[in-house]
Amino acid sequence: MNSYQIVKHPIITEKSTYQKEKGNKYLFAVDKSANKQEIKKAIEELFKVKVEKVNTAIFPGKKRRFGVHEGYKPDWKKSVVTLKKGQSIELEEKR
């Protein structure tokens, strides 16, 4: 997999904004099969920064209904990336 397949998109919420300001941590939705070393390499390649630590969590898909039809959203993986001191990533917020 290349870096663009591993890192899907940034997660921009109030909590992630607070973590970015206080702890130099950034949240990303990543490919479910990617491991921490692959995520670290992809972030360093895409954003030209040095990654100190990577934490991951897998979230199960939620049950959804469309009228009489039921189904599940897919499982997804979140990655919390801690950058070294003095490093930062500029993320654009969509509104």
Topology readout:
Layout (H helix, E strand, L loop, with lengths): L2 H4 E4 L3 H10 L1 E6 L5 H12 L3 E9 L3 E4 L2 E4 L3 E8 L12
Could you tell me the radius of gyration in angstroms? Answer: 15 Å
Binned, the helix content reads 25-40%
| Cα end-to-end separation | 30 Å
CATH class: Alpha Beta
CATH structural fold name = Alpha-Beta Plaits
Whole-number count of domains: 1
* Biggest sheet, spatial arrangement of strands: 1-2-6-3
What does the overall shape look like? globular
Q: Could you name the CATH homologous superfamily?
A: RRM (RNA recognition motif) domain
SSE pattern: HEHEHEEEE
Number of discrete helical segments: 3
Uncertain runs with pLDDT below 50, 5 residues or more?
none
Mind telling me which CATH architecture this is? Answer: 2-Layer Sandwich
The helix-and-strand class reads: alpha+beta
| Mean of pLDDT | 93
Tell me how many strands there are: 6
Q: Strand portion, in percent?
A: 35-45%
